[in-house]
Design goal:
The protein has 163 residues and is an alpha+beta fold. It is built from 6 helices and 4 strands, in the order ααβααβββαα.
Length: 163
């Protein structure tokens, strides 16, 4: 018995498959960024803010020589006040969205003889008031004017033939 005849490989089909493989391989990193994991379907994960949320205007109120009480009034109670490092406070902040870490910042305050000596840390966002104004500008719809006839009025105009 004779073996079955093999069909010739179509060069165009082979090129299309190779191009598709390259395209899919190139998109592997962005796929996970913009598409949810299959394990997360049906499971709601909360957005979690942990730690001390510090802003630049809070840090601008710090002055060398302030007492621990004054620093606590400005920045709040530190997340980490180690017994082994009595001369420093660590303010840590993390933001997790759908189980993935989105933002992490650290800020450290150093004391000498119970007086503020120096501070250092990651770049901090602008003031909370500025952030709230920017968020409101992005999310709030513009207020309607008195001349705005609304959806129903525009629909009636279309039906009447007044474009």
């Amino acid at each position: 018995m004779r073996p079955p005849a093999r069909r010739p490989v179509n060069a165009a089909r082979l090129a299309a498959v190779a191009a598709l493989a390259l395209l899919v391989a190139g998109c592997a990193g962005t796929w996970k960024t913009y598409w949810p994991d299959i394990q997360q379907f049906g499971v709601y994960k909360l957005d979690i803010n942990q730690g001390n949320y510090l802003t630049q205007d809070m840090v601008e109120k710090l002055k060398v020589g302030q007492t621990r009480t004054q620093v606590r009034q400005v920045l709040g109670t530190p997340l980490v006040a180690s017994a082994f490092h009595d001369n420093r406070w660590d303010y840590v902040y993390q933001y997790t969205r759908t189980g993935k870490l989105q933002e992490q910042r650290g800020f450290t305050v150093y004391f000498v003889e119970d007086k503020l000596a120096r501070w250092e840390g990651d770049e901090l966002p602008a003031s909370a008031a500025q952030l709230n104004r920017a968020a409101a500008d992005r999310t709030l719809a513009p207020e309607p004017s008195a001349d705005d006839q609304g959806y129903l009025g525009r629909l009636l105009d279309i039906l009447k033939g007044n474009w």
